[in-house]
Design brief:
The protein is built from 16 helices and 14 strands. By secondary structure, it is an alpha/beta fold. The strands form three sheets. The chain has a seven-stranded mixed β-sheet with strand order 7-6-8-9-10-13-14, with helices on both faces. Strands 2-1-3-4-5 form a five-stranded parallel β-sheet, with helices on both faces.
Length: 387
């Protein structure tokens, strides 16, 4: 039997090269075989890009923080992002594509009533059979009957509007004009106002529909002036709401304006000068991201500061993305070391957790609704929300 030949340096290099080549030849999903995938499908461009990007930033900060600490149950989280451009057909296509390609255990930060409505009609939720954590907006039509795969983390539109109407009634601004987007989200919101206003002794002086994605509110400004209301209530998407503030103030109308949470102060300031934004009141469904008064706010700010230091602004839409990611992460942790969509969904249905001044309790609230927190913030002289 011939003696064994010791490997020379050339042989070792050849073996290393062959091994490395074999690894590089693996499909991408196999290269990430030990990662747990969470998917974010949302508008990175188009009319809701500001909200979609902010949601993603908050989620990324959280998962980067988790991965820096070793992951969840010893596994890193891989956050997959795709841009649906706020187009319903793209949302459906990308959700199905990502579900097949990346096999996520959860989707997060689904955004847009028209998109979600289209997914219902297409039966997308049943087709992909994966939990969706955090759906915006909180329209009742998207929650009831909803889908067993949808988990609504934040308080819904009914809760937001009840809080605003109660506040307006209490301070005597009880004759209102409502401007609503002519899409399912806006129509649903108007329905809530019509339902709740009489019991709260709020008079509706006018109901004005704005076309989807409209950014010209000059004609609406004239209609509002004729309504002789004490305050205006916006049930609008971000760009439309910001354009309404701009056009009303440009017309010299200083009537108080209230909005749902979907119009962030940052969107208003992109279209209107600071002096016209001051005093605008915005419903909020998370604690204040600008003020570290709660443990959740402090955790959020610390994650953003460390993992996204290039993003200087702090917004409620970032906070929403961060919260949705934390809820998905907690469900993944409770699902155990080999999480699947079914296991994560089961964990979500039983999930009760206090994030630090923000209680999420799916069993208590029912209908896969987690939180009931609603407050009202007012834009101050620095362009920040105070509440």
């Amino acid at each position: 039997m011939p003696p064994r030949r010791r490997l020379g340096e050339l042989d070792k290099k050849k073996l290393w090269y062959l091994a490395a080549s074999a690894l590089l030849a693996l499909p991408l999903h196999m290269a990430h075989a030990q990662d747990v995938v969470v998917a974010h499908i949302g508008p990175m461009s188009g009319p809701l890009a500001g909200n979609g990007i902010a949601n993603y930033e908050g989620a990324k900060a959280y998962f980067d923080q988790v991965n820096a600490q070793g992951g969840i149950n010893g596994q890193k989280i891989r956050l997959v992002r795709e841009d649906d451009q706020y187009k319903a057909d793209e949302t459906i296509r990308l959700v199905q594509e990502v579900a097949k390609r990346d096999r996520p255990v959860a989707f997060i930060n689904l955004l847009g009533s028209a998109n979600v409505t289209a997914m219902f009609k297409d039966k997308t939720f049943d087709k992909v059979a994966t939990p969706f954590v955090g759906i915006t907006p909180g329209a009742e039509a998207l929650r009831n009957p909803g889908s067993p795969w949808m988990f609504h983390v934040q308080a819904g539109d009914r809760a937001q509007l009840r809080r605003v109407l109660t506040h307006l009634s209490t301070i005597g601004l009880n004759k209102i004009a409502v401007v609503y987007q002519d899409i399912p989200f806006g129509k649903s919101g108007l329905g809530f106002v019509d339902e709740m206003a009489p019991g709260l002794k709020v008079e509706i002086a006018a109901r004005i529909a704005a076309p989807s994605a409209s950014e010209d509110f000059k004609a609406v400004a004239q209609q509002l002036k004729a309504a002789n209301a004490k305050t205006y209530l916006m049930i609008l998407t971000p760009n439309s709401g910001a354009a309404m503030v701009r056009d009303l103030r440009a017309a010299g109308d200083r009537t108080p304006i209230y909005s749902m949470s979907y119009v962030p102060a940052s969107a208003i300031l992109e279209k209107a000068p600071l002096k016209d934004a001051v005093g605008i009141a915005l419903a909020q469904v998370t604690p204040n991201p600008d003020v570290p008064h709660t443990p959740l706010s402090r955790d959020f700010r610390a994650a953003m500061d460390k993992f996204l230091p290039e993003v200087k602004a702090r917004s409620s839409m970032q906070m929403i993305g961060y919260v949705n990611a934390r809820i998905a992460g907690e469900a993944i942790r409770r699902a155990g070391p080999n999480p699947t969509p079914d296991k994560v969904a089961a964990a979500l249905r039983q999930l009760r957790v206090d994030l630090g001044g923000y209680l999420v309790d799916f069993p208590a609230n029912g209908k896969n609704v987690g939180a009931e927190f609603v407050d009202i913030g007012v834009v101050d002289s620095r362009g920040k929300l105070m509440y």
